[in-house]
Amino acid sequence: MAVEIIMPKLGVDMQEGEIIEWKKQEGDTVKEGDILLEINSDKTNMEIEAEDAGVLLKIVRQAGDVVPVTEVIGYIGAEGEEIQEGSSSAATADLVAAGLEVPKAPAQSDAPAAKADKAPLADNEYDIVVIGGGPAGYYAAIRGAQLGGKIAIVEKTEFGGTCLNVGCIPTKTYLKNAEILDGLKIAAGRGINLASTNYTIDMDKTVEFKNSVVKTLTGGVKGLLKANKVTIFNGLGQVNPDKTVSIGSETIKGRNIILATGSKVSRINIPGIDSKLVLTSDDILDLREMPKSLAVMGGGVVGIELGLVWASYGVDVTVIEMADRIIPAMDKEVSTELQKILTKKGMKIKTSVGVSEIVEANNQLTLKLNNGEEIVAEKALLSIGRVPQMNGLENLNLEMDRNRIKVNAYQETSIPSIYAPGDVNGTKMLAHAAYRMGEVAAENAMHGNVRKANLEFTPAAVYTHPEVAMVGITEEDARAKYGDILVGRNSFTGNGRAIASNEAHGFVKVISDAKFHEILGVHIIGPAAAEMINEAATIMESELTVDELLLSIHGHPTFSEVMYEAFADVLGEAIHNPPKRK
């Protein structure tokens, strides 16, 4: 069926656009991503790309026409295809009524038609069997139930997955302790005179509190599943090609299977790595005796966060990172600033170096680095990332991308009706990305492949003190891809709330293209960065330009004023920045 080309809505205020020029003519072959036409809104000219491949069958509105947003201006389809005007609009209305995202029309080979009427389910048969109760899994199960499906979920340990049990939630509990200790250090300067500044860390109580937080949340997930009438199976699910799942002696069957098995700690094969004094990020969260020294192998998000926790407790922490800077996926300027701040907090950071051997002697470790240095520590933390968890999936002959399950935009694997959202596909190993992939997989399993998972504007954060967060691409990547870009900055050093809170350090950086002021990336190091980045992600998902964002008003005094001023600085309009040199 021919696909409509519509006048796009490029901003919240845009009501209509003028067609400047069609770059393709009727009968021309069009590839996805080709420039179809140029339009003018009330703000700027914009080239519109084809979202589908085919032949430009018909141009409905010509150059010079002013067209309301969402009105049809042309059609793309197969050569010689007859246009049934209005047909796709009806389909769109049906999707909206169902509460689903309106997808672009997929290529014939990319997505099968919606699933046909179903025969009644057998007692041990389900619309969807979900394997794994982490973020992708429990979201998929609940979304499937909301859509009227009979859903089962199989979990071998605790619900909530890595994030809730041994990842983001426990580490944030410990990082709050680090923040409290930072507060004690500055109390006297704020006029709060404590009877004593001496303190001790009770690791038993610390671990117990962390466990209570985890238990509350895992119990909450299980309660939500039960409330949505999801059938729960405890044990390792062995998945078979015929879509049966064996849990011990019991076997169930799914018309669709969602593989949400998550990830496990990645390991390296070097001499001495199996020492009991070498802990994983899972192990260290249950450590009840504080070491005097800790060597952290890996300066990524988890290594830096946990390193800061132990450094705040007074442990001598050394971070060893093979890249030229910590958290190398972050913007270089932000990474460099964070490294300076953490060094001032007492953390030792060694970059561009790796560990070649670990020697255990006299209840301590000697880490031999590949530059000839040696580091002695009571304990070591192995924190070099995570890899997909494939236990229970051995019988499936799935197409893989290295050690990750290969999925398409609908989260479907190479086996029809088997989906693999979350960490197991290695696309974006973040809990909130897994949430989205899980719900998309469930909707596609229930309705046929109707929705794609758009992860382009997924925010990421590091919960150090100060926090670090980003969405979009870095300045380095933007310059490589676009060449001509604009960069705006504003510092927390002049922000009223930051100064009043003893948190006047860090900055916000905004990157945009030079022509249309499209926002390419936002990078923050400073207070509440992990909260503010969500606003930036929403702005980018909504395709607001810098100019449109500056029409908004941010409250005062707030940390988020710094982000607003960084947007203004892109255009040289930041009030609280010195004038830019001409």
Automatic annotation (TrEMBL):
InterPro entries membership: 2-oxoA_DH_lipoyl-BS (IPR003016), Biotin_lipoyl (IPR000089), Class-I_Pyr_Nuc-Dis_Oxidored (IPR050151), FAD/NAD-bd_sf (IPR036188), FAD/NAD-binding_dom (IPR023753), FAD/NAD-linked_Rdtase_dimer_sf (IPR016156), Lipoamide_DH (IPR006258), Pyr_nucl-diS_OxRdtase_dimer (IPR004099)
GO biological process entries: 2-oxoglutarate metabolic process
Cofactor note: Binds 1 FAD per subunit.
PROSITE patterns listed in its UniProt record: BIOTINYL_LIPOYL, LIPOYL, PYRIDINE_REDOX_1
Keywords, ordered alphabetically: Cytoplasm, Disulfide bond, FAD, Flavoprotein, Lipoyl, NAD, Oxidoreductase, Redox-active center
GO molecular function, a single term: flavin adenine dinucleotide binding
Record's catalysed reaction(s): N(6)-[(R)-dihydrolipoyl]-L-lysyl-[protein] + NAD(+) = N(6)-[(R)-lipoyl]-L-lysyl-[protein] + NADH + H(+)
Keyword flag NAD: yes
Pfam families: Biotin_lipoyl, Pyr_redox_2, Pyr_redox_dim
E.C. numbers: 1.8.1.4
Superkingdom, taxonomy of origin: Bacteria
Record flagged with keyword DNA-binding: no
Cofactor: FAD
Domain Lipoyl-binding residues, every copy: 2-77
Family affiliation: Belongs to the class-I pyridine nucleotide-disulfide oxidoreductase family.
Extra remark beyond the main annotation: The active site is a redox-active disulfide bond.
PANTHER family: DIHYDROLIPOYL DEHYDROGENASE, DISULFIDE OXIDOREDUCTASE
Protein's name according to its UniProt entry: Dihydrolipoyl dehydrogenase
Organism, scientific name: Streptococcus pseudoporcinus
